[in-house]
Amino acid sequence: MKSQYKKNLHFDYQKALIDLRGPYQEHKHKLKIDLHCHDYNSDVPDELWGRLLQLRETWVTSEELFDCLKRNRTDVTTITNHNNARSCWDMLEKGHDVLPGAEFTCFFEEYNLYLHVLAYGFSPAQEEKLNELRKNIFAFAAYCRKHEIPTILPHPLYFYSKGKEPPMEAYEKLALIFERFEGLNGQRDIWQNLLTVEWIRSLTPEKIEALEKKHNISSDIYCRNPYKKSISGGTDDHLGILAGSCGTTLYVDDIITGTRMLKPSELALEAIWRGNFHPYGNIADEEKLTIAFLDYLCQVVLNMKDPGLVRLLIHKGSLKDKAACFILGNGLLELQRHKYTTKYLKTFHKALQGHKPSFLLGLAAPKEYKQFITPLVALSQASKSNDREKFENELHKLVPNMFTKVSKLIGDRVQSEITHFQKRREFKSPKFEVPLHLRHLFKNFTKNDQGFNLGKTLDKLSFPALFSLILTSAKLVASRALNSNHDFLNKFAHHLGRYEKDNKILWLIDGHEYYKDTKAWSDLKSRCENAAINIEFMICSQGIPTDPKIKYTHSLTTLDLQEELVPEKIAIPDWFELHTSFKEGDFDQVICTGEVMGLAGLFLQQAFSIPVSLHIQTDWLARIDHPSKPTPYFSQVRRYLRAFYGIFDNLLCSSEAVHKRLLHQDMDFKEEEIDFFAETSLPKCLFPKNHCSLEPPAEEKAKSSSFFEDFLKV
């Protein structure tokens, strides 16, 4: 259920879109266009990881993109690939009426900041000049104004940079050199789009004049009409699935009264130049974006080539990025070796285009895999029907249902292996190390000294495990695209004085930890209520908690390790259900009790760019280093735990024994890194910190401005 804050955002954003249509109520002649979409010629991504792995941003052809735009009933077509208009020139040569366009990556040197700029209606010669000038945003904007090339600043609150957040003065200068802004971007959430619209609407003529004096910048050099700020829309679609579902309505009443007959693209260009437009449609919800990124991952697996180890090592980038790309690249190339998985991904990609899975595929599939083919039949039929509502309904159902099915299949298989393993041997502590030599990892390491066949288990898990990983990755990337730079947006909202978020907290509790001492949790909840802390508690359990004020999320499955060290059954939460609860509840922070819930918290951390804390209840080292049954692998477990705990933003504990262990040289955490709270107190992380201003400190104002971290990791 959506929070009241989120409902208010939706209401206000829809009202803002209606208000933007107001000045054009009497106009009769209009054109629909998606001013921000890409095809296969966006082949050099801005993201470092994409360049390291030589991955295109999309493999969608111009013809496929045109088909998608046609299905969504656009009247004019443009393709805005990164730093080139090759697709526009190609389609013009084939006889199509296309508005030339591109999305240029420009440099704002004063703030060491990279930003995208959409430009339209230029010639091939002007395209070359724009690519030369994009190293200086002021020179780029002045050239466009002089040659009547209309520009739009897309996703204004989403920049590419290498450091801190940009100060507000950067936005003040952008307000002076641009007159058109994208206020409806299909791949940004409502909060970011609404903040953009509110910022643009706050730029009154009086404010523009005051900013010109403050920064000694004349807007006339860069803008046709500095006081008329127009707001556009575009899907920013890279995959040919959502293009045209939102965009810009252009009004051409004043243009068609002329004597010369103009093409739709010429009418569109003049309307953009005059700023006679407003956005239409709605942003893509997360389910649609998840499908889009799932399709992208399918295409990556099907099309990726080995980028080369030497090239990876000598490429620009940090060692951390290169190591991550080495692991990711090996994973993607390994996926190509699994024939059934690649066959299924290819079938999924075709189903999105309206192609029904072949009869032979369903016939040859193992019985337990047939449940994954049936949804693709319904998806292909919905896609082929051109019924947009039916197609979107299938998209909404597809990923959550398939994730639930594949997760249960994995859980059943893992539990079967554990049970089989336990019956064949007496208890021995497992080894917690893998060999350095990769050949040994995949050859000799198939069995450990207890007879557990790792290779056989991985073979059994191949399709469900790999497909589950792909589904989770698609969900993560989609969520991150919509919700990145969370902290920066809250500071921006604070500056505007509207839509700033409260510090709303979600506390996730492992069901075993909750039922071990329900009174302690009830007392903690009461203390939070007395302190007026905006917090909700949620346990992972297959049963409903006794306290009606505590919410619960279902566990997908439970694993019984049948070990003395881990006697409790491990409840595996439904990651997607947790994700939905977090999104709809509009939380800003997560606290997790229990290591399994900690993993779920890390997933939410990456998806929503929010802080996550781990509440440690169990002293695992004390269990392992029991005098009656010492383990030779104590040091390995200690290192893994220390590395795992170090990932979290905060560590919480309410046990003296756990607190003492964390401070011991075994773990080597410092006192200030541990948030210890007793039975009558509350963790410090529950109390919100004051938001920092976007204005740089006084001693830094003379220096180059700051900019926020690059969140875009594929």
Summarize this structure as a short list of keywords or feature phrases.
about 725 residues, alpha/beta, TIM Barrel, Rossmann fold, 3 domains, seven-stranded parallel sheet, disordered C terminus
Description:
Keywords: Transferase. It comes from Lentisphaera araneosa HTCC2155. This is Glycosyl transferase, group 1:PHP-like protein. This protein is α/β, with parallel strands linked by helices and 714 residues long. It folds into 3 domains: 30-284, Alpha-Beta Barrel (TIM Barrel); 288-473, no CATH class; 503-686, Rossmann fold (3-Layer(aba) Sandwich). Strands 12-11-10-15-16-17-18 form a 7-stranded parallel beta sheet, sandwiched between helices. A 4-stranded mixed beta sheet has the order 2-3-4-5, sandwiched between helices. Strands 1-8-9 form a 3-stranded antiparallel beta sheet. Strand 15, helix 24 and strand 16 form a beta-alpha-beta unit. Helix 7 (168-177) packs across helix 9 (205-215) and helix 23 packs across helix 24 (595-608). Residues 444-452 and 697-714 have low confidence and may be disordered.
Topology:
Blueprint: H1 4-21, E1 30-33, H2 48-52, H3 62-71, E2 77-79, H4 86-93, E3 98-108, E4 113-120, H5 124-133, H6 137-146, E5 151-152, H7 168-177, E6 180-185, H8 190-201, H9 205-215, E7 230-234, E8 247-251, H10 264-274, E9 277-280, H11 286-303, H12 309-314, H13 319-335, H14 339-352, H15 359-364, H16 374-384, H17 388-423, H18 438-442, H19 454-483, H20 486-496, E10 505-510, H21 511-516, H22 518-530, E11 535-540, E12 551-553, E13 555-559, E14 570-573, H23 575-585, E15 589-593, H24 595-608, E16 612-615, H25 620-624, H26 634-646, E17 650-653, H27 656-663, E18 674-676
Parallel strand pairs: 2-3, 6-7, 10-11, 10-15, 11-12, 15-16, 16-17, 17-18
Antiparallel strand pairs: 1-8, 3-4, 4-5, 8-9, 13-14
Helix pairs in contact: 1-8, 7-9, 8-20, 11-14, 11-17, 11-19, 14-16, 16-17, 17-19, 19-24, 23-24
